[in-house]
Amino acid sequence: QKKSKKSSETLTFKRPEGMHREVYALLYSDKKDAPPLLPSDTTQGYRTVKAKLGSKKVRPWKWMPFTNPARKDGAMFYHWRRAAEEGKDYPFARFNKTVQVPVYSEQEYQMYLHDDAWTKAETDHLFDLARRFDLRFVVIHDRYDHQQFKKRSVEDLKERYYHICAKLANIRAAPGTDLKIPVFDAGHERRRKEQLERLYNRTPEQVAEEEYLIQELRKIETRKKEREKRTQDLQKLITAADTTTEQRRAERKAPKKKLPQKKETEKPAVPETAGIKFPDFKSAGVTLRSQRMKLPSSVGQKKIKALEQMLMELGVDLNPMPTEEIVQMFNELRSDLVLLYELKQAFANCEYELQMLRHRYEALAKAGSIGPLSMEGAHPDGQTGLGIEEGKGDTKDQIIDVVGAPLTPNSVRRKV
């Protein structure tokens, strides 16, 4: 009796079904530790969820015959299908799309469709194949009876078919209606296939030559853009020099004739690349005049050295006394000198290019190869030769610069 009481007093916790032993050991141990304060749901989460099947009845399926409306031989087939769909049409028959090939009568053929190069039997054979193979002209050409009829190409078959379709559409159309008549250009199609065949039959040497010519064309376009850019920069420098000269003359004549001052909007715009653009100290506070004489950081070192050398040749002090008038005159002088330096550089580049063109012309004249522009003969550096057109009669020879002369070391553009 004592043993039974003791066994009834001891509490035993049974491991839930589906829980692993290691997980259960974390919740309860043999030392009779207290269970966790928060309840844990052991009925779900540790077992696989069963599939919940519906309570509806399964729709019955039936092994039944069917016919495909796309087939005209009346073939009978069998497949599994729902019993509720018995007697309905085959669902995939709607994907059977056929091309509407026009039909002509004997009278229409004799009046409108007659052609000396085609007989009526050959035309009927063409339209019969067009209906059978849905205008797949490659297949039609393969199935065409070349023994009974004249041998035709795919372009000939397509041209004859679409010519008849256009004729029938014009005849049967009501007056005043806009027609979309299909047009087939057989000559263009033949030329396209011929060009494609030539492209496919190229040799490796021809492919390499084409790639080389494409690279040369890119070089020519690049040098042409560079030459146009240098021309624009030179024109800007010339315009800036003329504008600066006119402004100086107007400033000198203004106090004598007492001309009314022009508004700021009427002043001609000077390009930013002309001379040196000194910063304006308009902020509040005290500034030194020597700060206005300091060159901006945008001026390159080579240009600064050239400017100092020109000032030394003119006998001008590099650091004069910074009075108001001297600061203004000194800055204007340096701006003019920089503009003069840029003009000299542009002039030297033009002279060098002109000399190179003259040498090329003389070399071609000695070789006797003066003629129309050609891509034959390339320089060792990968540049194409200069083409020259020879004028007739007393007209002057025109020199065409295809590539442009290479740049001299001093002609490389630097930031001002």
Automatic annotation (TrEMBL):
Residue stretches making up the DAMP1 SANT/Myb-like domain: 90-168
Keywords for this protein: Chromatin regulator, Methyltransferase, Nucleus, Transcription, Transcription regulation, Transferase
Compartment(s): Nucleus
Any single Gene Ontology cellular-component annotation: NuA4 histone acetyltransferase complex
Source organism, top-level taxon: Eukaryota
Primary site of residence: nucleus
GO biological process: chromatin remodeling; DNA repair; methylation; negative regulation of transcription by RNA polymerase II
Region (Disordered): 224-270
UniProt feature, compositional bias: Basic and acidic residues: 224-233
GO molecular function: methyltransferase activity; transcription corepressor activity
Domain DNA methyltransferase 1-associated intervals: 209-367
PANTHER family linked to this entry: DNA METHYLTRANSFERASE 1-ASSOCIATED PROTEIN 1, DNA METHYLTRANSFERASE 1-ASSOCIATED PROTEIN 1 FAMILY MEMBER
Name of the protein this chain belongs to: DNA methyltransferase 1-associated protein 1
